[in-house]
From TrEMBL:
Subcellular localization, as worded in the UniProt entry: Nucleus
Organism, scientific name: Escallonia herrerae
Coiled-coil ranges from the UniProt annotation: none
Pfam families listed in its UniProt record: Rad51
Name of protein: RecA family profile 1 domain-containing protein
Keyword line: Nucleus
Length: 210
């Protein structure tokens, strides 16, 4: 027969609650313990999303996630419709394979087509306003005056933050979160880091940017 003795709340919490439930069932005088464990488990379950199987996750991804077009039909096709809001999409490739150009293309299209802003974290001085202007000009079929207004609108919707180490990135992300919470109505539709490898590699001890 097992007996229970806990010197503190910490002693109780470091034990496996499900094991304690099984042991408590064997005790005739452990009703209060069982009630306490039940309450703790209820609180823990309330802090987490319910378990989802594969079909649940697929339906959630297909139905409730808004898709953001990249502005390129072939890339949208590969992504089964575009970028999913709330999801992480990683673009991988060797140096000079066009990753930054894709990022600029996506930033331009999202800033043009969707209400909200695009936050672009530039880790290697790769952000090019001139290239954004060219992309928007190619996307527009309006007159020069209207095209200039569209370019200005897109530029205003893209916020570029130069960051050169992971700690600065994390700090800016925390600041961005606080700012969005305080502003309420403001919405960031897309967040781009170009590129994350140049921030992570120094921490891992490597020397390459890719």
């Amino acid at each position: 027969m097992y007996s229970f003795f806990f010197c503190s709340v910490e002693d109780l919490l470091i034990h496996d609650l499900y094991v304690l439930v099984a042991l408590a069932e064997q005790q005739s005088d452990s009703e209060r313990l069982k009630q306490g464990i039940t309450q703790v488990l209820s609180i823990i379950d309330g802090q987490h999303q319910p378990w989802l199987n594969g079909m649940d996750l697929l339906e959630d991804a297909q139905q409730s996630k808004h898709l953001l077009s990249t502005g390129c039909e072939r890339i949208d096709f590969l992504l089964q419709g575009g970028l999913r809001e709330g999801h992480l999409t990683e673009l991988v490739g060797p140096s000079s394979s066009g990753k930054t150009q894709v990022c600029l293309q996506v930033a331009s299209n999202v800033a043009k087509e969707y209400s909200g802003s695009v936050v672009f974290f530039d880790t290697g001085n790769s952000f090019s306003p001139k290239r954004i202007e060219q992309i928007v000009g190619q996307l527009s079929d309006h007159s020069d005056i209207e095209s200039n207004k569209l370019i200005e609108q897109v530029m205003n919707n893209i916020v570029c933050h130069p960051v050169f180490d992971i700690f600065t990135l994390l700090d800016v992300l925390h600041q961005l979160e606080s700012k969005l919470r305080s502003q309420g109505g403001s919405k960031v539709r897309l967040l781009i880091v170009d590129s994350i490898s140049s921030l992570i590699t120094p921490i891992l001890g490597g020397s390459g940017a890719q």
